[in-house]
Amino acid sequence: MGFLNLRLGYHQPIQHLLVPTLPTHLASPHSHHQTSTLFSQSVSHNNKSSYSYCYKINSSSSSTLGTQKLVVRALSTQAPSPVDMIKAFRVHELGGPEVLKWEDVEIGEPKEGEIRVRNKAIGLNFIDVYFRKGVYKAATLPFTPGMEACGVVTAVGPGLTGRQVGDLVAYAGTPMGSYAEEQILPADKVVPVPDSVSPVIAASIMLKGMTAHFLLRRCFKVEPGHTILVHAAAGGVGSLLCQWANALGATVIGTVSTEEKAAQAKDDGAHHVIIYKEDDFVARVNEITSGNGVDVVYDSVGKDTFQGSLACLKLRGYMVSFGQSSGTPDPVPLSALAAKSLFLTRPSLMQYNVTRDELLGAAGELFANVASGVLRVRVNHTYPLSQAPQAHADLEDRKTTGSVVLIP
Ligand SMILES: NC(=O)c1ccc[n+]([C@@H]2O[C@H](COP(=O)([O-])OP(=O)(O)OC[C@H]3O[C@@H](n4cnc5c(N)ncnc54)[C@H](OP(=O)(O)O)[C@@H]3O)[C@@H](O)[C@H]2O)c1
């Protein structure tokens, strides 16, 4: 006795299909198999449907494989083409962590310019929460969230050179869809991962680390002698910002919500840490800078900190508003910038990693800083991928520090 799992895909609307009804389809008149269906299930995705069957086979024959092939061909006469099913999260409606649904999803093969990747580790980011809640709008519903992962190439599209099956690669950004066992990616969106970097580390720094890179090296170029303010300094991006800015020679002021997070931020190179739930961070920054203010604020908290951040800046200082963990900041009149001739920018990694050269440059600098020890990546939380809803809840509840990684 054995078990045969068949996964059959149909690139046809479901109403056009003849669905195999009986397990007797499995047994050819010439075989010795007796079969019975244990279960069957159907899933649909993008107007395509596929069926999963599990059969119990009682057989004394060694010709099982041949019979299975016959059956697949027979079923395939109804406009079929075999597809692979993988497990992935999908969001069908916007809302809390509970709208993340763990489902069978059709994946297919890579086309020209694409690769298929089996994910080994997936980075959790606050942007995943924004898409799940609808703060940022996904292009389609349902969608699979996730914008950061590291995995092994399992197939390459026709004619593709430069990538091979077995390569370890990582990516950050679009296309969204990394909360999945496997995914199809444009080959030019991934970078090779050096041997010295593990999949878990790669998945925890691709998005957060390249964000720290563009914020500190390109958006506002931090140099020795600068004083900077980093909100949420113990978070995924915040931890890397503190370490990197310290190494660049800046004086780093960090804000956090708890003593435990303050200890981590200090360990990460923040020279001054303010617990902004207890202390007025504007007054404290004023004290620390002897009334001069800071050169730049990296503000990912948004609504709760935005106005105070403007108040912390020195003349001609830079307000870098790159996130909104506490909510979208209120609109700012231009006059709010005029009093100190401030600069205000709302940057996104996607607009800083546009070309292949920009991507390779950012990833290269990041991996080099990990290798040299400038960045000590804190993977403080790992969850099985199937527990992504719990991971989302913990991130939103401010229970996490450093990077959070999901393991398929
Ligand atoms: N623009 C870009 O390209 C870009 C790229 C990557 C990330 N980001 C942004 O960077 C920020 C950090 O991302 P991350 O993934 O590393 O997350 P994270 O910083 O690890 O988590 C968010 C942190 O924000 C703080 N926070 C303050 N008020 C909060 C509130 N009301 N609810 C939840 N958290 C609150 C919490 O730290 P405390 O408890 O210490 O306050 C929390 O731990 C996010 O806003 C994200 O959107 C932007």
From TrEMBL:
**SMART domains registered for this protein in UniProt:** PKS_ER
Q: What is this protein called?
A: Probable quinone oxidoreductase
Which GO terms of the molecular function aspect are on file? mRNA 3'-UTR AU-rich region binding; NADPH binding; quinone reductase (NADPH) activity
Pfam families assigned: ADH_N (PF08240), ADH_zinc_N (PF00107)
Q: Which residues form the Enoyl reductase (ER) domain?
A: 95-406
A single GO CC term for this protein reads: cytosol
List the residue ranges forming a coiled coil, or say none: none
Would the keyword NADP turn up in this protein's UniProt record?
Answer: yes
Q: Which UniProt keywords apply?
A: NADP, Oxidoreductase
